[in-house]
Specification:
heterodimer; A: about 190 residues; alpha+beta; Arc Repressor Mutant, subunit A; Glutaredoxin; 2 domains; 4-stranded mixed β-sheet; 4 strands; B: about 450 residues; alpha/beta; 5-stranded mixed β-sheet; 4-stranded parallel β-sheet; 20 helices; 11 strands; about 45% helix; globular; disordered C terminus; binds flavin mononucleotide; binds iron/sulfur cluster; binds FE2/S2 (inorganic) cluster
Chain lengths: ~190, ~450
């Protein structure tokens, strides 16, 4: 968490055009209303998840400023949260973010080999995005699925008991879906709130 | 020993739905508690049950509840800790995925006992689909009149809200969780004051683990004494153990306290022995934060007694030759596993997850990671082992929250029991076939 740096100047853009769609805004208001009056800031983590989904999969400074305005808090309060949690991305990511578990229990069951295979297959290093913008590969800590090691998560889906063959078919499948412009992404705001 | 409390109905088709869950006797405890018992009577039964927190520390649940400040006049809160990020632990996920109403039922009784009108379930952000399952289950529970205003006509009001984290192990620590729920970075608070006095929004708050709360329905229905018939000594009831690593049947098992470690590890009903006929090398018995033990010491105590799956037996021998039950994340290593590499891996985990507030933890975890990394990569120096022991001892006990200890223990214990492996890595780095990335390609997949 500490190695995450915010790479844009901390500024509030005047007249930023960013805003949620009507439906998302309604959802956001519903989420904010769940917390006691005066404690609206509690909605920050859920709102950032939604914002990330709505705006190209990552949190730009403008997006964070917009979320701050929704909650009536200072932009810095959003930046300090966005930089702390590993599920918030501060830079553009690929259409599919592959999060491979690198922690002990997965590692002793071949997780490192799967990570190496993914790097080879996608021809990128962990942390990078493929030139076609289809895949970003990230290494994450224990996903709470160690009984099905090795494990990875892509968007909201878990993929378990990974083998090279499984990786081949998952990647082929996602590539095909992307070409047909059917992103695999399950929508947070629809499914989970 | 086959008695279960939590997972008896796990195989009933449709048990995830309110209707089926209810038909198996679900939510009877809510009717009983709200209509026939006072809140204090519920607390009393939980005290009598001997139920201990299942999140890792094993603190008696009833006692924790009795600390809640009732005098302040402020609202009280119950938070269910569903952050489950301790490496090796995946039991709460299983429970919430398969039988979410068991948690909700337990939470309603618990909130009633505490005098809380709002309960939160803080779910780690990676369990997105679980959030969906919980919200669906809550919708059903509201519709059936077991949540909301004037529940079952008793005048008791309760809302339960699911809240998502966003990827931070430290948010499992109860005060970091509270900060996070308030929309802030997950920086643990200095204790005291404890959450039971100053918790969420400055109000009295109890934080309990998913599994702890899932037990409450049974206790209300059957009484604390009946619950205490399960298990042995101060380890009452059952425990969900999530077993993983190099075993034949990884998965979540509900065991009655008192089962031998040997039976759990080798019986076909449970782990089913070590994979591919290999030999047992070591076990981390309670999630990555507890001391690792070599095979001989996990099966038998230093005094030569069979070790049992209980809080007490696993801790027998203290940190010299024992470990802890922790969260019940049971990680098994076969003879080919490299202890040095695994220790480095865990050191990297704790370094990554340190919130950075205290210097011993922030700096110490980083130093331990880099020293272990150089040992694993064949650049270790002879003084490195003692250096690691020294860093670990300087972190332990000197930090705001127990993450510092949790980072120090795995390293100190790995060196205590496997010092020779560290020495070999330093003297003869080529011997460990594992540390060259290219070779991973052909390992075990
Ligand atoms: C670094 C750290 C991480 C923790 N993670 C969790 C967790 O993921 N789930 C959990 O229930 N408890 C976790 N705990 C323990 C909680 O602080 C707290 O003791 C627990 O939720 C209390 O519930 P219980 O008494 O029912 O066990 C963690 C503690 C620490 C220090
Ligand atoms: S011990 Fe580590 S994680 Fe805990 S408060 Fe201090 S720096 Fe943060
Ligand atoms: S270590 Fe990979 S899911 Fe737990």
């Amino acid at each position: 968490m500490l190695d995450k740096k915010i790479n844009h100047p901390l500024h509030v853009k005047e007249n930023s055009k960013i805003s949620f769609s009507e439906a998302t805004l309604a959802k956001a208001k519903q989420i904010i209303a769940r917390y006691p009056a005066g404690r609206e800031k509690s909605a920050l983590l859920p709102l950032l998840h939604i914002a990330q989904e709505e705006f190209e999969g990552y949190l730009s400074a403008d997006v964070m400023d917009y979320v701050a305005s929704l909650l009536n808090i200072q932009p810095i309060e959003v930046y300090e949260v966005a930089t702390f949690y590993s599920q918030y991305y501060l830079e553009k990511v690929g259409k599919n973010v592959i999060e491979i578990c690198r922690t002990g229990p997965c590692a002793i069951c071949g997780g490192e080999a799967i990570q190496a295979y993914l790097e080879k297959k996608l021809a990128i290093k962990t942390g990078e995005t493929t030139p076609d913008g289809l895949f970003t590969l990230k290494a994450v800590e224990c996903l709470g699925a160690c009984g099905s090691a090795p494990v990875m998560q892509i968007n909201t889906e878990f993929y378990e008991f990974l083998t090279k063959e499984k990786i081949d078919s998952i990647l082929a499948d996602l590539t095909l879906k992307a070409k047909e412009d059917k992103p695999e992404k399950s929508l947070w705001k629809e499914k989970f709130f | 020993m086959e008695r279960k409390i939590l997972l008896n109905n796990i195989a009933v088709p449709g048990i995830r739905t309110f209707e089926v869950f209810r038909s198996t006797g679900g939510y009877l405890s809510v009717e009983k508690a709200l209509k026939e018992m006072t809140p204090d009577e519920v607390v009393e039964e939980v005290k009598m049950s001997g139920l201990r927190g299942r999140g890792g520390a094993g603190f008696p649940a009833g006692m924790k509840w009795s600390f809640i400040d009732k005098k302040s006049g402020n609202p009280r809160y119950l938070i269910c800790n569903a952050d489950e990020s301790e490496p090796g632990t995946f039991k709460d996920r299983y429970l919430m995925e398969k039988i979410p109403h068991l948690l909700i039922e337990g939470m309603i009784c618990s909130c009633y006992a505490l005098g809380a009108n709002t309960g939160y379930i803080y779910v780690r952000g990676e369990y997105k689909y679980i959030i969906g399952i919980l919200n669906e289950a809550l919708r059903e529970t509201y519709a059936a009149g077991f949540l909301g205003t004037n529940i079952l006509g008793t005048g008791y009001n309760l809302d339960i809200i699911v809240h998502s984290g966003a990827g931070a192990y430290i948010c499992g620590e109860e005060t970091a969780l509270i900060e996070s729920l308030e929309g802030k970075r997950g920086n643990p608070r200095i204790k005291p004051p404890f959450p039971a006095v100053v918790g969420l929004y400055g109000c009295p708050t109890v934080v309990n683990n998913v599994e702890t709360l899932a037990n409450i329905g049974y206790i209300v229905n059957n009484g604390g004494n009946e619950y205490a018939q399960y298990g042995v000594g101060k380890s009452t009831g059952t425990k969900l153990i999530s077993a993983c690593g190099n075993i034949n049947h990884p998965g979540v098992y509900e065991i009655e306290f008192g089962l031998t470690v040997r039976e759990f590890l080798f019986d076909e009903k449970y782990c089913g022995g070590i994979k591919d006929g290999r030999k047992l090398k070591a076990v981390i018995a309670g999630g990555s934060s507890v001391p690792i033990l070599p095979g001989e010491l996990i099966l038998k105590t230093a005094a030569g007694e069979e070790r049992l799956m209980t809080y007490e037996s696993l801790a027998e021998g203290g940190f010299v030759s024992g470990t802890m039950l922790g969260s019940g994340g049971f990680i098994v290593f076969d003879e080919d596993a490299c202890i040095v590499r695994n220790t480095w891996n865990l050191a990297r985990f704790y370094h990554h997850e340190s919130c950075g507030q205290c210097s011993p933890c922030r700096e110490g975890t980083g130093w331990m990671e880099s020293v272990l990394h150089r040992i694993e990569n064949g650049q270790g120096r002879s003084k490195d082992i003692d250096l690691l022991v020294s860093i670990a001892s300087k972190i332990e006990g000197n930090t705001i929250c127990p993450l510092g200890d949790a980072a120090a223990w795995p390293i100190a214990s790995a060196i205590r029991h496997f010092r020779h492996e560290f020495e070999e890595h330093i003297q003869n780095p080529e011997q460990c076939s594992l540390h060259r990335m290219e070779e991973f390609e052909n390992l075990k997949i």
